[in-house]
Amino acid sequence: MTEEIIIAGFGGQGVLSMGKILAYSGVMQDKEVSWMPSYGPEMRGGTANVTVIISDERISSPILNAYDTAIILNQQSMDKFESTVKPGGILIYDPNGITRHPERKDISIYSIEAAEKAGELGLSKVFNMIVLGGFLKLKPIVSMEYIHKGLQKSLPARHHVLIPENEKAIEVGKELIKAKQTLN
Amino acid sequence: MKGNEAFAEAAIRAGADGYFGYPITPQSEVMEYLMAEKPHERTGMIVLQAESEVAAINMVYGGAATGKRVMTSSSSPGISLKQEGISYLCGAELPCLIMNAVRGGPGLGTIQPSQSDYFQSTKGGGHGDYRLLVLAPASVQEMADFARLGFDLAFKYRNPVLVLSDGAIGQMMEKVYLDPQRPRFTDEEIKQNTPWATTGKTPDRERNIITSLALESAKMEQHNIALQAKYRQMEEEEVRYEKIGCDDAEYAFVAYGTSSRICQKAIQLAREQGIKVGLMRPITLFPFPKKIIAQMTSRVKGILVVEMSAGQMVEDVRLAVEGRVKVEHFGRFGGIIPSPVEVVEALKKQIIGG
Predict the structure, then answer these.
(1) % of chain B residues with pLDDT over 70
(2) pTM of the predicted structure, to 2 decimals
(3) Which of A27, A36, A41 sits opposite B172 (nearest CB)?
(4) Helix (H, G, I), strand (E, B), or coil: what is residue B284?
(5) Interface contacts A/B by beta carbons within 8 Å
């Protein structure tokens, strides 16, 4: 199993930390992982993205041009990454702020209204975990037991009281994700 | 753990005595990690932000002269500033660990990853006939491993060891296994292991003098001959490399560091298209694995050297190959990392079809 994922959105949406929690959870489950963030001028422009690879085998390149799954959280990222999903792959996006919806016919497309839901439930700080929940519903590559360990590992100790809230957000995300287009 | 953090933690665990640095992207996490970790409370290791890169490398000179395990790190423009000190360290035969997280140049350039400091690292960036022992990590694990290995080789040869990294390896996170803590040298061990060090003269021995100055030409030539003998010994004993998918390969990539990771993906993509290509990854850039590359020419029909530079290591590959097979270079530079697809296309165009 090798899952190659790009997560992309605005800085501040928790893109990098979502990737980090996923990567640490993978480590806890004894997978090979890599987490390769965009940094520097790219991030100072307001967009952030991270490539996360989780695999049973040694990982070759941490930098890719095609992904099994793209998780897209703003329009710039849609423009940049829709075309990079491998044929047959998955695109997950939050329609909030999206002006041009994905158009590919050769991939599965899912939407998750995480920003709206997070606002409703007063869980805006864990918006990214709602999105992660949606991803895990489709690709349960790490189990919740190891997500828990990943949260413990990647959050500083003073934030450990927030782990139940993060886990709740993941469960919310699993319920919230909707298929827009599936290949079969 | 990020590559930069793994390097810093591994240095503490390798029994480092001192880190002297000046911040610069993309390696500031090294000093940030060390400052936050407070190794003086764990092992007694000193971490000091110097007033400049020049000050930092000369603090390294001072520390190394007393037989301590000392280190610095910087990125390309900062490493250029350190070159005078590095030449003096080599001249005075002082062991130390230096890490360069290479960024795109020339000048201040960009903060994005690059491999354009190969010449500076392997051919002597400062003045004089000297060599650094250069280790090129390609993973977070190797960032950790090479901190310890780097110290050990530095002391084996009384020579600076350079870990040639870049922003991609420094900033990315991967799984890493860390060695247990090794104690710092005791004063007694320093006297035994490094009898040349300036530890305070005792009546039973001559003064130890640490200098790179020998005004008499005859003496300086003898010093140079001894240095060259040391570099030849490194070439005999320290060549390190990794071959991936070379057994049945008709073509080969030669790439180090980040580029070698891209090439591993390119191998998968090329083999899906029926192209039998392998990778030869130099781990030591000096000493360069020239014999291994020369041997490969009996089997492969062509070699593509993939570097994030305008073509630097390719010169050493061509010297090793001596014209027996075609050697071409493919590179992106200025902070751009080539994609695996681009690398496969370059192989097809420049080597297979060319």
Answers:
(1) 100
(2) 0.95
(3) A36
(4) strand
(5) 63
Please give the backbone phi and psi of residue B106, each rounded to the nearest 5 degrees, phi first: -75, 175
CB B291 within 8 A of CB B341: no
According to DSSP, the β-strands at B160-166 and B173-174 are unpaired
Q: Which residues of B touch A41 (CB under 8 A)?
A: 110-112
What's the CATH code, domain B3-187?
Answer: 3.40.50.970
Query: What does CATH list as the number for A2-181?
Result: 3.40.920.10
CATH architecture of B241-352: 3-Layer(aba) Sandwich (3.40)
Residues 155-184 of A with CB under 8 A from B: none
First to last CA, chain B: 42
CA distance B33 to chain A (A): 15
A65 touches chain B (CB under 8 A): yes
Q: Which residues contact B50 (CB under 8 A, 6 or more apart)?
A: B20, B21, B22, B56, B59
Query: In this predicted model, what pLDDT tens digit does every residue of A23-68 receive, in sequence order?
Result: 999 999 999 999 999 866 665 557 899 999 999 999 999 999 999 9
Residue among B111, B263, B267 minimizing CB distance to A40: B111
> Is B147 within 8 Å of B311 (Cβ atoms)?
no
Please judge whether A63 and B168 are an interchain contact, meaning their C-beta atoms are less than 8 angstroms apart: yes
Give ipTM to 2 decimals. Answer: 0.89
Q: Please list every residue in chain A whose beta carbon sits closer than 8 Å to the beta carbon of residue B263.
A: 61
Domain with CATH 3.40.50.970 in chain B: 3-187
User: End-to-end distance of chain A based on CA atoms, in angstroms?
Assistant: 21
Residues in chain A: 184
B162: nearest Cα among B243, B271, B87: B87
Q: What is the DSSP string of chain A?
A: -EEEEEEEEETTSSHHHHHHHHHHHHHHTT-EEEEEE--THHHHTTEEEEEEEEESS----SS-S-EEEEEE-SHHHHHHHGGGEEEEEEEEE--TT-SS----SSSEEEE--HHHHHHHHT-GGGHHHHHHHHHHHH---S-HHHHHHHHHHHS-GGGGGGHHHHHHHHHHHHHH-EEEE---
User: What are the backbone angles phi and psi of residue A136, rounded to the nearest 5°?
Assistant: -70, -25
Q: Across the interface, do B261 and A23 touch by the CB < 8 Å criterion?
A: no
Task: Using CB atoms, pick whichever of A39, A41, A60 lies closest to residue B264.
Answer: A60
Taking the C-alpha atoms of residue B268 and residue B106, their distance in angstroms, rounded to an integer, is 33
Contacts of B112 in chain A (CB under 8 A): 40-41
Which segments in chain B show pLDDT lower than 50?
none
Among B112, B244, B265, pick the best mutation site for testing chain A contact (most A Cβ within 10 A).
B265
